[in-house]
Amino acid sequence: MRNNRNARLAKALLLGAAAFSLTGFWQTAALAQEPADRKAFFGEQHIHTSWSVDAWLFGNHLTGPDDALKYAQGATIKHPLGYDIKIEQPLDWMGVTDHSEYVGITKQANTPGSAVSKMPEAQPLILKNPNDPADVAKVFAYLVSLVSKPPIKAFMSPQVAGTIWKENVKIADENNKPGTFTAFCSYEFTSQYNFRNLHRNVYFRDCAKVADQPFSSMDSWHPEDLWKWMDAQRKAGNELLAISHNANLSDGWMYPIDVDSLGRPIDAAWAASRDRNERLIEMKQIKGQSETHPLLSPNDEFANYEISSFLIGLPADSGQIPAIVGSYARQALKDGLTMQDTRGYNPYRFGFVGGSDSHNTGAPYRQNNFYGGHGINDGTIETRMAGHIFTGSDVRWESPAGLSVVWAEENTRASIWDAMYRKETYATSGVRIKLRFFGGWDYESDILDGQDWVKAAYARGATMGADLPPASRQAKAPSFVLWAVKDPTAANLDRIQIVKGWTKDGQSFEKVYDVVWAGDRKPNAASGEVPPIRSTVDLEKATYSDTVGAVELKTVWTDPDFNPSLHAFYYARVLEIPTPRWSTIQARQLGIEPPGVVPATQQERAWSSPIWYTPTAEAREAATPGLTVAELTQNEAAPLDENALKTLVVGKAIWVRNNVTGEVMKIRYDEDGSAAILHVGRDALLPSLTGDVVQASYQTTASRYEIRDGKIVTHISGTPISMAVYKSTASQGGNVAREQETYYGARSNEFGYANYEILLKGPADLVELPKSDDIADKDQSKYLHTPEKE
Amino acid sequence: MADETLQREALSSRGVLQGLAREPLVHFLVIGGLLLGGYALLGQDTAPDDSSTEIVLSVDDLAQLLMIFESKWRRQPTQDEFNLMVEDRIREDILYREALSLGLDKDDTIVRRRMAQKMQFLAEDVAAQQEPTTDQLRSWFAEHTDLFTVPQRISFRHLYFSPDSRGSSARDDSEMALAELEDAPLDTASAESLADPFMFQDYYGDRALQAIAGEFGPEFAQAVSRLEPGSWQGPVKSGFGWHLVYVDNVIAGRVPAFEEIEQEVKTAWLGIQKADAWREAYDDMRAKYTVLLPVPAEADTAAVPAESRPPEALAPDREAPL
C-alpha cells in the first residue's frame, strides 16, 4: 500500500518535472523578445455553439464554431432567435468550448426519423414544442441528469464524437491567423455530478498536437481522472491546460480542503496534479462571479457583486440549497496558503481569466448590449425583464460576459498559451481596462515616472501570476507597482485595490486595501476605507457621466502590515465608477421600474492574477508556533465528551480568546440551541468562515448551534463548522502549566490547530487605554459638554 | 468501417465455424436457431441466416481496440478494461446489425447527412487536386482585386490633454495650445511641453482604423481619418480626453502586388474552386430528379395563380416524397 502510494507520488513528481522543464524551454524561446514588450490581448475562452447539446435545446440551431470565431473577429451573426448580433469591438483571440458530452445527440433526437429519435433513451430528449420554455426546461433537466449518471453507451459512438472534434480542430485552424487573430483548439469537460458544477475548459497549446478525442465527463465525472488524462496527453507531447469555471455553482465542491471527489484524503500528489493542470480559473461570466461572497468577505464592501447562487438543472421542487463555503476563489487562495503552511502543498495557486459561457455562439460583453446567453430562454427583452426562471436561475441575475486578458509577446497560440500557463493574465467584467501589476522589494516610489518603468518593473520584480523574488536583506516589506487605464469606450475608474490574504496557525485572513483612487477623497479615519465615489447614474434615464473618476490610476504601494514569517498572496482589483446595470437600462426601455431583485447600478472591474509570497524556512521558524491538536493530545489533553461539553457551555456564557489574533469575545449558548457572539468590533481581525460576526455581535443576532459527536456545531450558510474542546492541565503552546484545567477549542476548518482558549474568567474591561495618569473624579466633568459642531 | 466488418465476417465465417463448435455459446445459438426454425415452420418470421449472428473479431480488430485505448490513456489497458472494450465493440456490432435488419438506416438522418457530406467532400477533393498555374492565379487575381484590398493606414502624432490633471478645462487648454502651434513646424519638443504625458504612445505609425479605434475608441478613429495631413489639428475627443493630432501621412487603401500575396491568392482560389465544383456537381445531380411537393387543399389554392402551382402535385393525400 505504502509502496504503491510512493510510486504514485514519484510518478507525479516526474511528470511535474517534465512539465516544468518543457515550460522552461518555451519560455526561453519566447524570451527572444523583452517581457516589457508584451501586449494585452483580449479574448474569449468560453463559448458554446449549436454543437453543444444544451445550446441546441435553447434554440441555437443555426450557428456553429466557425460563426463563433467570425463573431469574435467582428462579423455580424444570427442570434438563435434570428436577429443580428455583433460584438462591440473585435477580440484578439477565442477558444470555442462546446461540451464534449453527447455532442450532436440532441440535434439528432429532435430530427424526426433518426435512429436516435426512436431510441427509448432519447424519448425524454424530444421537445414537444421547441418554443415552449417549460418543455425545454424539462429536457434540459433530463440532460443534466444524464451527464451525472453512468453514460448511455448507445449515445457514445466514438465515430460521432471523434468526427465532430476533428471538425472543430479544422475550423480553428481555418480561423487562426498568427499575428492577427488566434483560434484555439479547446472544449469543455462538463462534469455535473448531482447538479454540482465541476466544469473545466481544456486548452491545447498547439492544434497539430491534440488528443484524438476529448476526455469527457462520460469517461469519468471526476476532475482527478481528467488530470490523469491530461498528464498522459502532456507526456505524449500534447501540451494542455484546464480552466475551471462557475465555482459559484459548485455547491462547495470546486475547492475542497479535506477529501477529493473520490472521497480520498487530499495529499501532495493531488495538489501537484491540480496545480500542474488547472492553471487558471474563470472569475466572472454570464452566470455570475466566483471571486467571493459577502458572507465570506464581510469587510469587503465591493464583494456584493453579480452574485449567482443556484444549481444548474436542479428540479424546480427540490429543497437543496447550494453551499457558499468551497465555492469561491478568494477563500480557495487563502486555504491554499494554509495548506502550504500546515501540510506542505498548495493546490490553489491559480491565475484569473474571464469568459461568457454563452450558448448563443456570440456573447454580449457590455451592459448596453445585453442579449442574454441562452437562446430562447433570455433572448428577448420581455423574457429577460419578466424574470423568467429556467434551470433554477432568474434571468435577471445574469450578467454580461467577462473577458480574459493575457500579457503576451505576440498574438499566436504558443505565445498566448504560454502566458496563460505562467498565469500572466487578468480577468475583466467585460470592459477593456488595461492593468499592470508587479511586486518586488526595492521599487522606488517614483519608478512610474520613468519612461521605461515597465522594463524596470519586470527586471526587479515579479508580475501577475508569479512568486515574489527572494527578499533582499534590507527590504522590510514588499512593494507593488500598479497601473490601470480605463476602457476608452467605457466609464472612468474609481480606484485600484489590493486584496491580500495570509495565514497563521491554520487560520487564514484577508484584507482589502484601497491603494490609489480618483479625486481628492480622504480615507475614513476609523476604517481606512476610501468613501464611495459619487454616483452619476440617472436611474430614470439609465445613464451615467464621466464627470467623476479617472482615466489613469497608478501608484507604488508598500504593504504596511507585512509579516515576513507568514505566507501571503496579493492581487489587484480595479473598479470603474458606478454605471447602470443592464437590467436598469432595459427596464427604462420597457418603461418599468428597475427590478428589485438585483442592484440598479454596478461597478465594472478587473482582477489581476495573484502574486505570492513564501517565507524562507528561516523566517517561518522565527514565528511563534501555534498549538496543535496533536500536541494537545500528546500532552495528555483529552477531548470533552458530549456531557462534559454540555456542562461547560449549554445555558452558559463563556469567554473565548483567539490565541492567533488575541481577540477576545463572549459567546452565550442558550438552552434551546441559539448562540450569540458579543463584543466583536469592526476592526477585529477575524479568521476565515466566521461570517458577518461584527454585525451579529453589534445587533446581538443569534444563530443556531448544536452539540453533536462531542463538538459544538455552527453553520455558515448551511455548511457545518464544528469545534472540539480539549481539557488540559499540562503546559501547552508556550503557556505555563495551570493549577486548574484549561480548555482549548479546535475549529474544524483550521487544519488541526487548537486556537481558541476558553477563559474561565473574562476581562472586566475589553480595551487597554494608553498609559497615563488616572483622571481624578473631580476632573471628570471637564470631559463633559464638549462642543460637537464645528 | 462497419461495412468492412461485415465483409470480413462473410469471408472468414466458414473457417471459424469449426473452432466455435465446442463453444457453449454456439450450442446456445444452434438451439436458438432450431427454435427459430421451428417458428418458421409454424409460419412465424424466418430466422436470420447464420452469418448474420456471428461476430468475428480478428487480431487486427483487437489490435485496433488496443490502439484506441493507448492513444487515449498512453498505457496498456488492464484485463478488465480490455474485456469491457471487447464487449462494447460486440454490442456496437450487434446493435448495428439489428438496426440494419430493422431498416433503421433507411431514413436515418445521421446516416443520410453523413453520406451526403461524403458526396460533398468527394466533389471538393476533386477540385482540390487541381493545382493552379501561376498565370491562372494571376489572371484570376486581376479580376478579383477587391478581395485583397489592404485598408487605409494612418501615421500620426498627438498631444494629450488629460481630464485627470486638467478637469473640465482640458478642451479649452487644447484649443489654446492649438493656437500656439498654428503654422508651427512639427517640433515635438516644444509641442510636448504644452500637453500632458500620454500613457501609451505619442506617435502611431501605419495604423489601420480598427487598431486606432481599439486604442482610443471608435469616435477618435473616425475623426482622425478625416483630418488633413501636415498640420496640428483638433481638438479631437477620445475615450481618454482631448487631443491635438498631426497626421504625418495617410497610406490609402491599396491592392498589393500579386507577388506579395501569391499564397493568399492561391488559398482563396482553391476555396472558390471547391465551392464551384460542389455547386456544379450538385446541379448535375439535381437535374436528374423530379421533385414533388404537397399543395394546400382546393379552397386555399383559389387565390394562387394556376401557373405557379407545382405541375405534378399529388393533391389527394397532400403528401409527397421528396
Principal-axis shape of chain A? globular
Q: Which band does the percent of strand residues of chain A land in?
A: 15-25%
- Ends of chain B: how far apart? 29 Å
* Fraction in beta strands of chain B: 5-15%
Poorly predicted spans of chain A:
1-31, 150-160
Care to count the β-strands of chain B? Answer: 4
User: What characteristic shape of chain B results from the CA principal axes?
Assistant: elongated
Greatest interface and its participating residue counts:
A-B, 38 and 37 residues
**Cα-atom radius of gyration of chain B:** 37 Å
**Biggest sheet of chain A: strands, sense, closure?**
10 strands, mixed
Mean pLDDT of chain A equals 89
Number of alpha- plus pi-helical segments of chain B: 13
What multimeric state do the chains show? Answer: heterodimer
Strand order of the largest sheet of chain B: 2-1-4-3
Q: Please bin the fraction of helical residues of chain A.
A: 10-25%
Q: What series of H and E elements makes up the topology of chain B? A: HHHHHHEHHHEHHEEHH
SS summary, helix count of chain A: 18
List its traits:
heterodimer; A: 790 residues; alpha+beta; 3 domains; ten-stranded mixed beta sheet; ten-stranded antiparallel beta sheet; disordered N terminus; B: 322 residues; 4 domains; four-stranded antiparallel beta sheet; 53% helix
Describe the structure.
The complex is a heterodimer of chains A (790) and B (322). Chain A is globular. In chain A, β36 and β37 form a beta hairpin. In chain A, strands 1, 4, 5, 15, 16, 20, 21, 23, 26 and 27 form a 10-stranded mixed β-sheet that branches. In chain A, strands 28, 29, 30, 31, 32, 33, 34, 35, 36 and 37 form a 10-stranded antiparallel β-sheet that branches. In chain A, strands 6-7-8-9-12 form a 5-stranded mixed β-sheet, sandwiched between helices. Chain A contains 18 helices and 37 strands. The N terminus of chain A is likely disordered. With 790 residues, chain A is of the alpha+beta class. With 322 residues, chain B is of the alpha+beta class. Chain B folds into 4 domains: 107 residues, no CATH class; 75 residues, no CATH class; 102 residues, Chitinase A, domain 3 (Roll); 33 residues, no CATH class. Chain B contains 13 helices and 4 strands. Chain B has a 4-stranded antiparallel β-sheet, with helices on both faces. The radius of gyration of chain B is 37 Å and the shape is elongated. The N terminus and C terminus of chain B are likely disordered. The chains are: A alpha+beta (790), B alpha+beta (322). The interface between A and B is large, with 38 and 37 residues.
